[in-house]
Design brief:
two-stranded antiparallel ribbon, Rossmann fold, 317 residues
Length: 317
């Protein structure tokens, strides 16, 4: 049965791959890249090729391999149209009640609507809910609105943000658009760090690798794939730890390593589904609340996504 399942998965991936290649690389092939675009494309493909495949669970190992294959044969200027990305890092329309809440929070916090304007990197599909934005950017803004709504947090006052599983870098871009000036740490698998570097570098973000971090650095976007580098960067506890669905989709051993490294930050922002890979996430995140009893906790179930938000504020800081 396992063999048949694996064969079906490979066939389905191959079918997607061929369809995307015909659609994106033949039928709708992009124009010749500029010299700067060509440079970033070459750097991206080289970085992905030299990256290591993950040991963080069977599912992520498969996904990393598939992204590696797309990166080898496809133009990354279209990466947000790749099926391998669309199936995991982008979303469809956002529930109207979530959009209304987002707009109210932004108004209350004095956040300019311009932060919701999408850019062209990756060729994103634009939203029909807010002109000029994308559903994925709105999705990340909704995550952040939950945090801002339920705490007294001010983005401008944060010193260090650690995001575990940063997708292609959209949340990092959103924080910078709002005005965050501190260090933003993206902790992820090597192949995703390559994608984040490609995306954010094309937005002229200052990117460095974790091993190159200096204690005096500030305003950096730091790419990290191991807890040793993370601990070196976190000379003091982070202001905010973000893990929207990423922690709940990781093996428990990986979760414990990252949580031990970040300790007790000022704020937690979690998003999770009740069950993943036979792990009871409701029980797991309830245990996080129990262990961190010195935090105020806010829970919310979102029926549209059949998922949960968990937000924590450290009362000792």
């Amino acid at each position: 049965m396992v063999l048949i399942k694996n064969l079906k998965e490979r066939f389905y991936f191959l079918k997607q791959f061929i369809f995307d290649y015909y659609n994106l690389e033949i039928l709708n092939k992009l124009s010749k890249p500029s010299d700067n675009e060509r440079k970033t494309i070459i750097e991206f493909k080289k970085s992905v090729k030299n990256g290591k495949l993950t040991k963080a669970g069977t599912w992520w190992k498969k996904f990393s391999f598939r992204l590696l294959m797309y990166s080898k044969f496809f133009d990354p200027r279209n990466f947000l149209r790749w099926e391998v990305i669309k199936g995991t890092m982008t979303v469809g329309n956002i529930p109207n009640e979530q959009i209304k809440e987002l707009e109210m929070v932004m108004k209350d916090k004095g956040i300019n609507n311009k932060v919701l304007l999408e850019n062209i990197i990756g060729n994103p599909a634009l939203s029909d809910q807010i002109i000029g934005s994308s559903s994925t950017l709105l999705h990340h803004a909704c995550h952040l609105s939950k945090l801002l709504k339920n705490t007294e947090l001010s983005i401008n006052e944060l010193e260090t943000v650690v995001e575990f599983g940063g997708g292609y870098g959209s949340m990092c871009r959103l924080f910078r658009s709002i005005g965050f000036k501190g260090n933003y740490v993206l902790y992820d698998l090597p192949v995703f760090l390559s994608l984040q570097k490609y995306y954010l570098s094309n937005l002229n973000f200052n990117m460095i690798n974790g091993e190159d971090f200096e204690s005096a650095d500030t305003g950096k976007n730091i790419l990290v794939s191991n807890t040793q580098d993370l601990k070196k960067i976190l000379l003091k506890l982070p202001s905010l730890f973000i893990a929207t669905w990423s922690l709940s989709e990781s093996p428990v051993s990986v979760r414990e390593q990252i949580l031990e490294a970040v300790g007790k930050p000022s704020y937690f922002l979690f998003g999770y589904q009740a069950l993943f890979d036979n792990i009871d996430n409701k029980k797991y995140f309830n245990n996080i609340k129990y262990i961190n009893s010195d935090f105020d906790w806010f829970d919310e179930y979102v029926p549209y996504w059949d998922a949960y938000y968990l937000i924590g504020k450290n009362n000792l800081i």
